[in-house]
């Protein structure tokens, strides 16, 4: 199976790639995360993912759009700026872009490392992925990677990879400091 794996960061990718390898699937990675703020955070995550891909011999596609202004503009247009609505918007833009690329490049399926995080809205990611699959005529490969989250984080620390402290968007950064 030729799989395009949307990747939010190297730490979340490690165990996803290992599980897929156990199924004899070697994914192509795709970096598209215009929600991440500030630029230094965006760059740290992207660059660490590049190192991970190189070390593992994985092909990495990048849509290197630092999209803070567009992201904030679109969120501010929403009737509600609740964290749920923001997250759904964020999942949608990334999964739709991944599905589009997967369809254009004749991949059999796509998936996302967002499915490893116990902090994300798992059911919403699955639903949005399945809808994007229909919209772009490519399969969505669903896997619940969450049981592997802590092992992946440990492996990332042991490898010296950059470890982020929040989801990525400007709103989650604010919430991190307000707590």
Write the layout of secondary structure elements.
Elements: E1 3-6, H1 10-22, E2 28-31, H2 39-56, E3 60-62, H3 68-77, H4 83-104, E4 109-112, H5 122-136, E5 139-140, H6 149-159, H7 170-178
Parallel strand pairs: 1-2, 1-4, 2-3, 4-5
Helix pairs in contact: 1-2, 1-6, 4-5
Architecture overview:
The protein is an alpha/beta fold. The protein has one domain: Rossmann fold (3-Layer(aba) Sandwich). 55% of the residues lie in helices and 9% in strands. It is built from 7 helices and 5 strands. It has helices at residues 10-22, 39-56, 68-77, 83-104, 122-136, 149-159, 170-178; strands at residues 3-6, 28-31, 60-62, 109-112, 139-140. The longest helix is centred in the middle third of the chain and has 22 residues, at 83-104. The radius of gyration is 15 Å and the shape is globular. The N and C termini lie far apart (43 Å). The mean pLDDT is 93.
């Amino acid at each position: 199976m030729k799989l395009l794996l949307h990747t939010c960061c190297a730490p979340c990718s490690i165990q996803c790639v290992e599980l897929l390898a156990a199924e004899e699937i070697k994914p192509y990675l795709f970096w598209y995360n215009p929600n991440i703020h500030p630029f230094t955070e965006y760059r740290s995550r992207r660059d660490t993912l590049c190192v991970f891909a190189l070390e593992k011999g994985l092909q990495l596609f990048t849509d290197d759009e630092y999209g803070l202004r567009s992201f904030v503009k679109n969120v501010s247009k929403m009737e509600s700026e609740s964290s749920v609505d923001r997250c759904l918007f964020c999942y949608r833009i990334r999964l739709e872009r991944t599905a589009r690329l997967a369809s254009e490049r004749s991949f059999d399926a796509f998936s996302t490392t967002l499915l490893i995080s116990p902090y994300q809205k798992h059911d919403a990611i699955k639903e949005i992925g399945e809808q994007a699959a229909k919209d772009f005529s490519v399969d969505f490969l669903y896997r619940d990677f969450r049981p592997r989250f802590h092992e992946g984080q440990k492996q990332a620390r042991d490898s010296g990879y950059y470890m982020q402290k929040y989801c990525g968007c400007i709103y989650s950064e604010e919430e991190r400091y307000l707590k």
